[in-house]
Amino acid sequence: MKRRNLLLLGGIAAWVWGVPRLYQAFNERFQFDPIPGLDGFRIVNRGSVSGATDIALLAVDRVSDAQRSLRADLRINPCSIFDGARSSEKLPLAVFTDYYCPYCPEMSDLVIELSEGASPVTPVWWDLPLLGPRSEYAARVAIAAGNQGQYLPVHQHLMHKPLRPGPVALNELAERFDLDVEKLRRDMQAKQTDLKLETAHAARAVFGMIGTPSVVVGRSVLIGRASKQSFLDLIELEYNSGEFSDSCGQNGSP
């Protein structure tokens, strides 16, 4: 079997990828539940989350026609949440966070460290503001910063330092990250930013995400905070899975 290296936090260790015995052992560690209406995807046992609850998701769903259309599109092509991250060499992660979620910084930092090391993963970041107007404001700032090539630095900053409301704090942030503040303001209210947020909310409904953090690891939706080792084990499990490669690999949709 082909051997690959996976970066472990605190050092690099050699892992054997694709060994059936290990694959079976990891598979038995997780409790998977199917996602209704989304063949091939499943939810993994949950950790601490902030945001909604199962009861909220089961409530009467009053959504706009546009939101309903986005959800329908995602059910047809759920792999679209991985955007351009699909490849034959790395496992895409769709990472959903809220800047006021107390559990999100830990998961965000873990994903960043893995993706910047030797781990075979590529993250796609989705801002999913569930905790009120300040969460949405921060999400719009991060998305708009992405239009100037500064999404990840701003994301990391906002994960650890809440953004004060008002123009003074926005000007300070723009100066800190060398952003055009007028363009930043325009892009925060742009239709493309609205669409990005609406798509994240549609994904939440389709994939059954009851809160943040949530990470779609290949075809497994990990809800809530996870231990470092559990997250690494799930990555290995999904990386070795031919089922994911067949459905969400380089060549597109399931």
Summed up, the helix count is: 11
Mean of pLDDT:
83
Report the helical percentage.
40-55%
CATH H-level superfamily: Glutaredoxin
Summed up, the domain count is 1
The CATH top-level class label: Alpha Beta
Instruction: Tell me the strand order in the biggest sheet.
Output: 3-4-10-9-6-7
Question: Strand-residue fraction?
Answer: 15-25%
Walkthrough of the structure:
- With 254 residues, the protein is of the alpha+beta class.
- The chain has one domain (4-248): Glutaredoxin.
- It has 11 helices and 10 strands.
- The protein has helices spanning 20-29, 54-58, 65-76, 104-115, 133-146, 151-160, 167-176, 181-188, 191-207, 228-239, 242-248, and strands at 4-8, 11-15, 32-34, 42-44, 50-51, 91-97, 121-127, 211-212, 214-217, 220-223.
- It has a 6-stranded mixed beta sheet. Strands 1-2 form a two-stranded antiparallel sheet. A two-stranded antiparallel sheet has the order 5-8.
- A hairpin with a 7-residue loop joins strand 3 and strand 4.
- Helix 5 packs antiparallel against helix 6.
- The longest helix has 17 residues, at 191-207.
- The chain is globular.
- Mean pLDDT is 83; it is low at 1-27, 53-60 and 250-254.
